[in-house]
Amino acid sequence: MTAPALDDSPSAAAAGSPREGRRQRAATPHRSVTVKWSRFSYVFVSGYVLFALAFGVLPTLYAVFIAFLDNEGRFSGITNFTKVLADFRFWPAAAHVGLFLLVWLVALMVLVTLLALVVHGIGRRWLSSSLRFVYYIPGALAGASSVVLWLFVLNPTVSPVSAVLHAFGFETFVQTVSPGNLPVVFAVIAFWTGAGNWIIVMYGALNSIPDEVLEAARMDGAGAVRTALHIQLPMLRKWIAYMAVMSLAAGAQLFVEPRVLSQATHAVVPTDWSLNQLTYLYAFKQQDLNGSAAIAVLLLVASLAVSLFFVVRGGLFERD
Amino acid sequence: MTKPTTRAVRTRLSGVSVAAVAALLALTACTPGVSPTDGEAADSPFGFATAEQKADAPITVWVDASRQPAADAFAEAYPDIPIEVETYDGGADGSGSFQTKIQAFNQAGSGWPDVVFSTQNNDAAWASQGDDPFAAPLDQGYFDQSFLDGFTEGALAPLTVDGAVYGLRNDIAPTVTWYDESLMEKFGYEVPTTWEEYRELGLKVAEEHPGYIVGGIGDAFAEEIYFWGAKAPLSTVVDANTFSADASDPHATQMAEILDDLLDAGALAQEDVFSPDFVQKHSGKVLMLPGPAWFSGAIFNNPSSLDAKPGTIAVGAPLAWEGEEPAAGNVGGGTWFISQHSENLEAAKTFLEFVTSDERYQVDLAPGLPAYQDAADKWLARQAEDGFFAGDFAAALSSASTQVWDGWGYPRFSQEAVWNKTVTPKLAAGENLVDLLPEWETAIENEAQVNGYTIK
Question: Domain B55-172+332-381: which topology?
Answer without folding.
Answer: D-Maltodextrin-Binding Protein; domain 2 (3.40.190)
